[in-house]
Structures are given as C-alpha cells and as structure tokens.
Design goal:
about 240 residues; alpha/beta; Cobalt-precorrin-4 Transmethylase, domain 1; 10 helices; about 35% helix
C-alpha cells in the first residue's frame, strides 16, 4: 500500500495519524524537489524514528514507488500537504488505475498559513509560481506576473511561491523585472519566511527597502496585496516594524 503523508510546516508537525502509518511502513521516502525544507533530514529522522530515502523529481515521476507499493507498505513524505503538487495527484490516479491502494494524509500548508499576515484567505486569487531563471541561456519567464496582474484587476491578493534554489536577492530581482515587463505596479510587498516554523518572519515593506535585506531564509514566499480591508491594513502595519 502507498501512503502520501503531509509533514505540515515544521519538523514536529506530522500528525499522529501520519506518524502511526509511517511506523508501519517498510520503506519511507522524503520528497525533496518541491521545496527546500526549513529543517534537517536528520531532525525529521529523529522525530519519525526511521531512516528516510531521498526522492527526487525523476524518481517520483517515474512512478517506481507504485511498483514497490504492490509488495510492501511504502510512504512518501511531502512538505506541507501531499496534494499541493500535480505530480502527487498523478500518483494517486496511477495507484488507482494500477489497483494499488493509496491513502493520503493531509496536513497544514502555506496556502492556509498565510493567514498569519492578517490577510483574509477568501480574498486571495490564483496562486503564482516564480521559476528560477536560467541567466546563462537568457531564459527569463515572467508569466507568473500575468497571474498577479489578473488578480490585481479584481482586487485580489496574490501569493507567489518561490522555486527551490532561488535565493532572496535573485527572487526580488525577478519580481522587479517581471513587474516592469508586465506593467504591474509594486507598492508594499509582503515576504513570508519559513511560515509556520520557529524561524517565521513576516516583512511588509516597499520594494526599495526590501532590496537592502539580507539573510531571508528559504522557504519564503511573496504576497502582493490587492484591495485591503481596513482591518487587513491595520494588521499589516505591525509587520512594518519587524
């Protein structure tokens, strides 16, 4: 049987249900390509009490793990919620088609944790993903900013998930260039660092001020506020002092 188990947002947030299922599994993989974990694999192994095997994109997309699950109980641990990535949804579909039982154990994700900013969740629009640009090939896709533009047209907030391996100064530069290319006005921006962990930090600053910040740790995300309710505005003001 195959188990897709959400880890939540910090090393200790795996649910009791998830932990109990992991302990019965013969092999446990840790998905390592959708997000940079805000804690060490060793810490997670100590929490779980078992050895973890890394699972990169090639391995997960090959669906070899489904073949293993025909013979023994196998778990794939995934940061946040298991069904955030389309690859994992495909795994569930393929498991069902192959006659392999599959169970999903949900957990918290950044999609709901961004409520810590004080922004109302139902006022968020489409989610955008910022890719890591290949500067050598001059490949600089900025279509994620089109989503921001669309959200902005209806006053919705935009959550931008930042690709793994993209450092804060580079991500900020991509944001700046993409906004210029797509004619999107950037005023104050929210940066969410390692939301849901002990190292959580929320910054609310104009772009010019954020360019002077160093040491923002991954995983982090950007939020471009849309039309703000006065309660949201008041809540955000507290993050200008951090």
């Amino acid at each position: 049987m195959l188990f897709l188990i959400g880890l939540g947002l910090n090393a200790d947030s795996i649910s009791e249900e998830g932990l109990n299922l992991v302990k019965k599994c013969k092999k446990i993989y840790l998905e390592n390509y959708t997000v940079e974990l805000p804690y060490s694999t060793q810490h997670l192994e100590e929490v779980i009490g078992k050895k973890l095997f890394p699972a990169d994109r090639e391995f997960v997309e090959s669906l070899k793990i489904i073949d293993e699950a025909r013979k023994l109980d196998v778990a794939l641990l995934i940061y946040g919620n298991p069904l955030m990535a389309t690859t994992h949804i495909t795994m569930v579909q393929e498991s069902n088609l192959s006659g392999v039982k599959c169970k999903v154990v949900h957990n918290a994700t950044v999609l709901d944790a961004v409520g810590v900013t004080g922004l109302q969740i139902y006022k968020f629009g489409k989610i955008a993903s910022m890719p890591k640009w290949d500067e050598k090939k001059k490949f600089t896709p900025d279509s994620f900013m089109k989503i921001v533009k669309e959200n902005s047209s209806i006053g919705a907030h935009s959550l931008i998930l930042v690709d793994i391996g993209l450092q804060f100064p580079d991500a900020l530069n991509e944001l700046k260039i993409s906004a210029k290319n797509q004619e999107v006005s950037l005023s104050k921006i929210i940066v969410g660092q390692q939301i849901g962990t002990k190292n959580q930090k929320i910054l609310y600053r104009p772009l010019s001020e954020l360019e002077g910040f160093k040491g923002v740790k991954a995983p982090f995300c950007f939020i471009l506020p849309g039309k703000l309710h006065f309660v949201e505005s008041e809540y955000l003001e507290s993050f200008q002092k951090e």
